[in-house]
Write a structure and sequence with these properties.
heterodimer; A: mainly alpha; MetI-like fold; 74% helix; B: alpha/beta; D-Maltodextrin-Binding Protein, domain 2; 2 domains
Chain lengths: 274, 436
């Protein structure tokens, strides 16, 4: 009897999980479906069966060229993530293993910067970028993306590092490991799942960032967010082309997420059960 | 052998020298059919100007507006040519943010620009932006449904006729709405339509002392008429409909009449996309016999920011893109129907264009019927037909647009919406120092 209830519960839970997953994924699925419709089909209301035309993809590629934007997105997402990890690993180490009187306050202050609306600092940032010649530069935008995601990276790493017993590091120190060796050979390998999931999440955040990447670029450094935004039209029908542009823009990150989901889930639940 | 090596060397050196001298200009623009076509045709410009390279930045309309405003206000110098509208030009020219267009070339023929459009892009008689395409608004209607209703659309209808026709054409059981009008909130969406409509009802945004006028009977008449007309004859969810939504409805045969931008005529009469292409008639925007019609005036135009280092090259490009020769280039490659409309008188005198675009005469008459310098029945201290050319209007227009959209959706009454609009406008104008 107990076994029957358990099976039924399992079935219900599985069905619920599928329903939730479908609901979450549906907007993306419908975007992909719409991208294979003609503009006329796209506006004719809800329809899950497209005619399968690829005219929108051809028009999108002919109008704006995908690869330059794609390469910029890859450079910015990967570059800003590496930069963020280089800064955040030592910072999180110091906060986790050598906390001071103000550590908690510093962590809260870092997080509080994420609570401010980005538009509030648009003008100061724009002026700094203008005066330092960083407008429309990949390096400038990479630093910007690193800075806006840094609080989350530090917080995530801090949480993972706190789960690692300090005694292991002490043992390494007793064996004569220097601080550098302690971080590189002892701490980092133990925190690999955490670091990997932080890295993946940061790549996703940087890839999808659409406020600064549109406002601080023009032609040279513009990533896929700018590519998508260029297909919205004030006068004329554009849903199918916009869907094709969006599908092209999200495809790489979707595929990356698909292949790394085990690592991502493992990292995100790291330390959840002791 | 030596000669060949020398020749090759000289060629390489001259190519390098040319590359070093080629100047790159950046053009910010919006994504619409005419602009996309221009990007495709730029080989013609670069062939004529091999020392100038073009870089394009296409953005969503509101993002473009925000980006170019940021750039021009901070003198960021990111753009050498920017696409702006008739709202921005007078404000930005007065701030000295734009360069006067005085080097467009001897064969440019400035006088050929339609006077109403040139007036909207000039300050003190100086042109600060060159129109790429211009538009007014007019009535597009289904000739077959009008005939079925036993009515004949006059060339210059009144609002009463529009109401009468809408009542007769509405057939909701068969999915036909008598009239489709903008309802989506925004200064460039429902407020463009309602402000132009209010002009024909004798209303105005402000009196000569910048006192808001939403508490006057003319505005009550405008908004009440609009809400009643749309409730009886408009499509479901009209408060979410802008240009593109109504375009889709009309193309699918779900609207008897649609009053919107003249540029829509080329979409609704295109048999590839419109199911009613051969059944569309055109008429001037309605009036109430007070001397002003409910049509607007807008021109997407190319302007050069004062911060650019490449003014000469930028001016060459603006001259090319808005010239008579460009119209001929488009006609030769893609047909006369695809020439950007509404900017030059010569286009409307061209028999080939008249043949290709049956809506040409009505478009020109509509543009000529709009006067941005005297937009209203009673005197006003501002310019602009469907907007008020002051910096505060974007925010205020959108706030009032939200209130009127709520009235259309039935979330608030017409009286409440007008009262709140009056309060919001009074607060904005007091804060801005217009009202002492």
């Amino acid at each position: 009897m107990a076994r029957a209830v358990s099976t039924r519960h399992k079935t219900i839970a599985t069905a619920a999980a599928w329903i939730v997953a479908l609901l979450v994924f549906f907007p993306i699925l419908y975007t992909i479906i719409t991208s294979f419709k003609s503009e006329q089909e796209a506006i004719q209301g809800f329809n899950l069966f497209p005619s399968g035309t690829t005219e929108s993809y051809i028009a999108v590629e002919a109008q704006n060229g995908y690869f330059k934007f794609f390469l910029n997105s890859v450079f910015l997402a990967v570059g800003s993530t590496i930069l963020a990890l280089l800064v955040a690993i030592p910072a999180a180490w110091s906060m986790a293993f050598s906390p001071g009187k103000w550590t908690k306050d510093i962590l809260m202050w870092m997080l509080s910067t994420k609570m401010m609306p980005a538009v509030a600092v648009l003008f100061p940032i724009y002026l700094i970028f203008r005066d330092t010649g960083l407008l429309d530069s990949r390096i400038g935008l990479m630093i910007m993306l690193m800075l806006i995601n840094l609080p989350i990276v530090v917080w995530m790493l801090y949480t993972y590092f706190r789960e690692i017993p300090g005694e292991i590091l002490e043992a390494a120190r007793m064996d004569g490991a220097s601080l550098w060796k302690e971080i590189v050979y002892v701490l980092t390998p133990m925190a690999v799942p955490g670091i990997a999931s932080t890295m993946l999440l940061n790549i996703i955040l940087a890839w999808n960032e659409a406020f600064w990447t549109i406002r601080l670029t023009t032609t040279e450094a513009a990533p896929l967010t700018a590519f998508i935004s260029s297909f919205s039209s004030p006068q004329g029908l554009f849903w199918a082309k916009l869907s094709a542009a969006s599908t092209l823009a999200i495809a790489p990150i979707l595929i990356m997420g698909w292949f790394s989901q085990k690592q991502l889930v493992r990292g995100l639940t790291f330390g959840a059960v002791k | 052998m030596k000669l060949r090596t020398l020749t090759l060397g000289l060629l390489s050196a001259s190519t390098l020298a040319f590359a070093a001298h080629a100047e790159s200009i950046t053009i910010a623009t919006v994504n619409n059919g005419d602009m996309v076509r221009m990007q495709k045709l730029t080989d013609d410009f670069t062939a004529k100007n091999p020392d100038i390279q073009l870089q394009w930045v296409t953005l969503e309309e509101n993002v473009l507006r925000e980006r170019v405003t940021t750039d021009i206000a901070t003198k960021g110098g990111q753009y050498d040519v920017m696409t702006i509208g008739t709202y921005e030009v007078p404000i930005w020219a007065k701030q000295s943010w734009l360069l006067p267009l005085d080097k467009l070339g001897d064969d440019y023929d400035v006088k050929d620009i339609i006077p109403a459009i040139a007036g909207g892009l000039s300050v003190d008689g100086t042109l600060y932006a060159a129109p790429f395409y211009g538009e007014s608004s007019f009535v597009m209607y289904r000739k077959d449904l009008m005939e079925k209703a036993g009515l004949t659309m006059p060339d210059a209808p009144t609002w009463d006729f529009i109401k009468q026709a809408a009542d007769k054409m509405t057939d909701r059981a068969n999915g036909v709405n008598g009239v489709c009008l903008r309802g989506k909130a925004g200064w460039g969406e429902n407020m463009a339509f309602l402000t132009a409509m209010s002009n024909s009802f004798g209303a105005r945004w402000f009196d000569e002392n910048w006192k808001p006028q939403f508490d006057q009977p003319e505005w009550k008449n405008t908004l009440q008429f609009y809400v009643d007309l749309m409730k009886a004859n408009g499509p479901e969810g009209a408060s979410s409909n802008g240009f593109n939504e109504n375009l889709a409805l009309f193309q699918q045969g779900k609207c008897g009449m649609w009053i919107d931008a003249t540029v829509a005529a080329s979409f609704v009469s295109d048999p590839k996309n419109s199911t009613v292409a051969d059944k569309v008639g055109y008429a001037l925007a309605p009036d109430n016999g007070l001397g002003k019609r409910g049509n607007w005036l807008w021109a997407w135009s190319l302007a050069i920011p004062a911060g650019t280092q490449k003014a000469d090259s930028a001016q060459k490009f603006v001259s090319w893109a808005t010239s008579k020769a460009y119209a001929e280039l488009v006609a030769s490659k893609e047909g006369w129907a695809n020439v950007p409309p509404g900017t030059r008188s010569s286009l409307y005198a061209n028999p080939e264009y008249q043949k290709a675009a049956p809506f040409a005469k009505m478009t020109l008459d509509s543009i000529n019927a709009a006067d941005p310098t005297h937009p209203t029945v009673k005197p006003v201290p501002y310019v602009g037909v469907q907007f008020v050319a002051i910096p505060e209007f974007q925010g205020l227009g959108t706030t009032v647009g939200q209130l009127f959209s709520a009235a259309l959706a039935g979330q608030t009454s017409v009286d409440d919406a007008l009262k709140q609009a009056q309060d919001a406008a009074t607060a904005t104008m007091t804060e801005g120092g217009y009202i002492q």
